[in-house]
Amino acid sequence: MREILIDIIISSVRNLCIDANYNLNADLLNAYKRSIDQEGSEGAKGVLNELIENALIAKEDQIPLCQDCGLAVIFMDIGQDVHITGGDLREAVNEGVRQGYKDGYLRKSSCHPFTRENTNDNTPAIIHFNIVPGDKISIKLAAKGGGSENMSRIAMLVPAEGIKGVKKFVVNTVRDAGANPCPPTIIGVGIGGTFEHSAILSKKALMREIGVRNPDQALAEIEVEILKEINHLGIGPMGYGGAVTSLDVFIETVPCHIASLPVAVNINCHSARHKEIII
Q: CB-based burial of residue 30 (10 Å sphere; 0-12 exposed, 13-18 middle, 19+ buried)?
């Protein structure tokens, strides 16, 4: 049994919060650059160049990529041979978020749903725990902004609608969102399970790197097909029109009830801020 001190969890989450908000992942920056070559619109190219410049300034000056520093969404895979010592795991994660958003001068966006009173420390974080084999802990953290989250949708389709119905729902969701989620977007799709599990799958799908396809060949082909359909919508970067409305589509699936076909679409803005550490 491997012991991991709770202080390591706190410091790791703290650092992930700051890193995610300051330093755009290389796969996304490269996707911006490739998109410039695909665009025929000068307006769209201008937007993409500004996104690249923004990312470079944020990294150099160590400041947030966007004023919306998001809610902290965490997927934590905990090895079953790990013993966490020194305190409560959930509180440690929240303490790490608390410290990260304070020390990184990140906007705190967590508030009461009705009074809108701010919690003032961006907690509680949205945490998804998962027990896995081994003696390590993987922490994936996303800073999820409100603008893109607001345009995400879920549907309980009739099973007979099948993959055709799924594609239609995903593309229509992106069409209806228009420029609101700050495209070029990344689209996470969760299919199967139950109402709530499909939504979690769609959020988890967004943690993938740009260009990494689902290992299931059939699903990988569907990801590419949906991406092509989305980019034919002509919404383009920031809604200025163009060939690149979304940078990628990621699908995750699990089995579902014979009477159900749950589908969730989680949209991420161009600033898809996520980082991972393995302890």
A: middle
Q: How far is CA 161 from CA 145, 152, 246, in A?
A: 31, 20, 24
CA 64 – CA 191 distance, rounded (Å): 33
Residues 76 and 201 in one domain: no
Assigned domain for 33 exists = no
Contact 80, 133 (CB under 8 A): yes
Number of neighbouring beta carbons within 10 Å of residue 167: 18
Q: Which domain holds residue 205?
A: 147-274
Q: Report pLDDT digits (tens) over 134-154.
A: 999 999 999 999 999 999 999
Within this chain, do residues 187 and 255 fall inside the same structural domain, yes or no? yes
Query: Which residues lie below 8 Å from residue 121, measured CB to CB, with a gap of 6+?
Result: 97, 98, 101, 102, 108, 110
Residue 29 inside a domain? The answer is: no
Tens-digit pLDDT profile for residues 38-80:
998 899 999 999 999 999 999 999 999 999 999 999 999 999 9
In angstroms, the CA 97 to CA 71 distance is: 9
Looking at 97, 117, 144, the residue that finishes a domain is 144
Q: Under DSSP, is residue 49 helix (H, G, I), strand (E, B) or coil?
A: helix
Assessment of whether the complete model's pTM goes beyond 0.85: yes
